[in-house]
Amino acid sequence: MMYDEKDIEGGLNFDNLKAICSQLTKEIKGIFEGTGMYFQILSRVKEAKSIASKLASGNYENGGKKIQDLIGIRIVLYYFDDINISKEILEHIFNRVDEWSESNNDVDEFKATKRNGVFKIPKEFMSLYIEEYWELPIDRTFEIQLRTMSFEGWHEIEHDMRYKKNEDIGDLWQDNYSLSRMMNCVLANLELCDWSLVNVFDKLAHNHLETGKLELMIKSRFRLRMKDEPLNPEIAEVFAQRPQLAKKFYDCSRQQLIEELLKHEKPVITPSYIIRMLNEAVVKDAQIESACDGIKWKKSEKVQVRSSCKKVTGHPAFNYDVILGRDSDRSLDEEWVGVADVLYGWAYDMFGNVFEMPEETCDFQSETPGYKLSVKLNRAKYKTNVYAMYIDLDRTGTMWNVHTECTELEGKLHFTVRVECDSVHVIPEQELFRKPYFIKEMNTKFGFVDIIKLNGEIHRIKTSEELENMKKFVDNIKRKMPVVVVCQDGMEEDKALIKMSGLSKAIDDYAHLFFAGAEVFEGLAEFAGRKADELDGSVILFWRKDAKMRMSFYSRQQVLNSQFDFNRFVYSNGQIYDKAFRRKILQIIKTHNRTDG
User: Fold this and answer.
1) Mean pLDDT, the chain, whole residue set
2) Is 528 in a helix, a strand, or coil?
3) Rounded to an integer, what distance in angstroms lies between the CA atom of residue 276 and that of residue 283?
4) Domain count, the chain
């Protein structure tokens, strides 16, 4: 079947594909920045003209070979040994399709060093694509190309000036064999430059090791972006007493170090930080461990396109509806004043540089292009209204709207928040959900109540009476937040299939958490419409009474089979299924918060 440009443009949603490409690029860039490696990243969505030309070759068809590089990402590395390290990182994070395509040179021919890998577009990114299927012979994959800086420019020359054939004008190199050989020599020299650069730094590192200049040894041995500062005095003292110890750190590989860095959250890389990291992972010297105690530890390109005007689409981004937990030592008036101060303080922090606002809490209204703020206070009726609108500085064509109200209800303060996003773009799911930071401060100062307190407590159910209370709570029409029930044969939380402390922390502000033992499985199974023998290791999620569905059920096997399509946590410690399922539940709850709030 033949396809022209109009077929391609009609069959693919390029705006959505560019959003997927942008998000993939952003995530990969964030991961690589955490490694300290020197790199650049480029990306593109293949143009309709290029797709049509490729399909016209006749090599692609549905049911057979498909185009795999609809989205292309190129990572340009400064050192050639980072290519294999990058391959390992990417294979752990994404699901690879087929083998890497690599340049293989023989003694008579040189080709530019490159690695091309094809990966599945993760489901969480494909959710940006509205159409579920497309008819074109194009895989839901993206290609990552790994190059060194030496060869980056050469690839364009090679593609257009050496291997690209044109039947109309002939072969550029025909009858010019000697010149073609000279091209090989140029390529060979580029490869020699890559190899020589690494060897120069390895030799430099060894020289600094021999002379005891440990900071310089670390910098030249590991070749990462790091702060140039001396080793901590305690660490330097250990090396001064035991000079031979430095060799153990010199012998650690860059790959070991980079894999350790991936376990840390935005580390500030210094020579001391590297020593502590390698000591914990590889060397394990007791004196160095003691000397490292004071080190702070953090373990844990936009494509320019021509476009016409686009329709603005509104998206719900966050919903909250709770009662504030009254403090018996505080009057309603005092509590209202405290709430007004928190909300006005947030508005002042957000808009103080935009409008001339009084520092003291008061009524305030003003607007200017891209920004609008309204604060209305009624102390007599214990009522506070805040409306804020502001442009997204990171994404053109996007506005955020925050509506907040706190009003007296039956002697307590009723607190609601609604956030909406207006944008001409497709916004990634994980970026669309937006909880204002004043939520955390309000919860800390006043506490939230959704019939019962929302305080991260794990409610244990092991008696029929406790089960009945939970059932009444689930069926209460006034309940606003979902209820998560983890079912486990035995009440030892530390032995639960899912780490309860981690789950509690993840869903603290968004849901109630219950832990049900085998003693109540029969009654709980009947209430949930399941079989009792299905419950052990399962998770039940009860939604609001007025939501689109009553409950969601996740079996033990579904929990154990949880995995990341895009696994940014692969280098962290702990069971992957636990983190994957926790993240899945949190994302489901956040989506529910936006769409059914």
Assistant:
1) 87
2) helix
3) 9
4) 4
Q: Is 190 helix (H, G, I), strand (E, B) or coil?
A: helix
pLDDT at 388: 96
DSSP state of 161: I
Place of tokens 């409306």: 387
- CA dihedral for 135, 140, 429, 453, sign (positive or negative): positive
Pick from 153-167, 266-280, 443-457: least confident: 153-167
Could you tell me what percentage of the chain is helix, strand and coil, using 3-state DSSP and rounding each to the nearest 5? 40, 20, 35
pLDDT tens digits for 261-277? 988 877 889 999 999 99
One domain, residues 478 and 550: yes
Q: Do residues 379 and 336 make contact, with C-beta atoms less than 8 angstroms apart?
A: yes
The rounded distance, in Å, linking the Cα atoms of 519 and 516 is 8
* Dihedral pair phi/psi, residue 499, rounded to 5°: -70, 110
User: How far is Cα 308 from Cα 397, in angstroms, rounded to an integer?
Assistant: 12
- What is the Cα–Cα distance from 550 to 531, expressed in whole angstroms? 17
- Does pLDDT of 415 surpass 80? yes
Last residue of a domain, one of 391, 423, 449: 449
At 417 the three-state DSSP class reads strand
The C-alpha atoms of residue 173 and residue 175 are separated, in whole angstroms, by 6
Q: Which of 429, 449, 469 is the last residue of a domain?
A: 449
* CA separation for the pair 553, 571 (Å, rounded): 29
Note the helical H segments in 262-308.
271-278, 286-291
The closest of 541, 490, 494 to 516, measured between CA atoms, is 490
HEC assignment per residue over 352-412: CCCCCCCCCCCCEEEEECCEEEEEEEECCCCEEEEEEEEECCCCCCEEEEEEEEEEEECCE
Give the CATH number for residue 462.
Answer: 3.40.30.10
Range of the domain at 506: 454-596
pLDDT of residue 350 exceeding 60, the answer is yes
Could you tell me if 406 and 339 are in contact, meaning their C-beta atoms sit under 8 angstroms apart? yes
Residue 303 lies in a domain: no
Are 75 and 92 spatial neighbours (Cβ–Cβ below 8 Å)?
A: no
Q: Are 589 and 480 in contact (CB under 8 A)?
A: no
pLDDT band at 519 (very low <50, low <70, confident <90, very high): very high
Let me know if residue 343 belongs to a domain: yes
Q: Which two tokens stand for residue 47?
A: 């143009």
**What size, in residues, is the chain?**
597
Q: Tokens 């419950």 belong to which residue? A: 535
- Kind of pairing between the strands at 458-461 and 448-450: unpaired
The residue type at 523: G
pLDDT for the residue 374: 97
Give the HSE-up count for residue 291: Cα atoms under 13 Å, Cβ half-sphere.
22
* 436 pLDDT more than 90: yes
pLDDT band at 102 (very low <50, low <70, confident <90, very high): confident
**3-state secondary structure (DSSP) of residue 268:** coil
Which pair of structure tokens corresponds to residue 509? Answer: 């502000």
Measured between alpha carbons, how far is 449 from 480 in angstroms, rounded to an integer? Answer: 10
- Give the separation between CA 83 and CA 114, rounded to whole angstroms: 8
- Residue 356's CATH number: 3.30.530
- Any idea of the CA torsion for 92, 93, 98, 100, to the nearest 10 degrees? -80
Domain match, 494 and 590 both: yes
278 touches 252 (CB < 8 A): yes
